[in-house]
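Model: You mentioned two targets. I'll fold them one after the other.
Researcher: Yes, keep them separate.
Model: Target one:
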Amino acid sequence: MAEAKTKPTTQSVKDFISKLPDKQTRDDCTIIAKLMEEVTKHKGVMWGTSIVGYGTTTIKYAGGREADWPMIAFSPRKQSLTLYINPSDPNKAALLSKLGKHKVSGVCLHIKRLPDVDVPTLKKFIICEVKRIKRLSNAEAPTPEKLFIFSEKKKK
């Protein structure tokens, strides 16, 4: 059976953020990291070379294979800051409408810069996602279909 490519590493989150080339991105990632740590009560862990994850949940695939995955995560990509906080969940529609400038693709929320969004609303969004995942995880190991609600709808 194939092993997951994206796994926790020993790389320091602080070192990763400090080496980002753009000051605005470093500042934004530092704030997002603090928000996610505060909400999850978990220290950030590098997953692979560029994803910063908080907390861990176990997902169970249809074939029975299980894999660990961060409860929530973010990654500074070239085009945007990508937050893995499942914006496609219909229960979060009201928060999305108040968030500010963003895009949604699948389970990712994309923002160009943190000043483009309302940070208190982003924090509520993160809280909502952590509660949702904890609810799912307490019931049983969620399937990717339950954990990741997919939608092609985009917001600006």
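Model: Target two:
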Amino acid sequence: MKEIILIDDEPLVNRIHTVLIRSAKPDQLLTAFTDPVKAFDYVKDHTTNKLVLLDINMPVMNAWDFLSGLKENHVSIDIIILSSSINPEDKMTAQSYKNVKAFLNKPLSKENIRKLIATEDVPIEWPATGSE
């Protein structure tokens, strides 16, 4: 089972997603971070069997800094951008990173949670840019 790592500077968002994920799968391995720098260090040192749900706009280190850091450190890990951004440029930027598998809107839907925990692969397709 993949560990899901939530990275969002808003504690309430992490709490909501934790509750939603645990309600769908109580034994799901789950780690939440509100500090993206601490999350980066954790992910960099624990790369096996992980799925990261990453917010874009965070203080100190945003998603693009996080992703660039992973690339510079040759860390290959599945990332799903989870954001409230409706900016099409954010989606295009996310798609430029090969380890970013999807761009989903906050909060996670029950359907997306079901897909995330139902398989070891990332089963989510990219939504059409600019359609949301």
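Researcher: Noted. Anything on target two?
Model: The chain has five helices and five strands.
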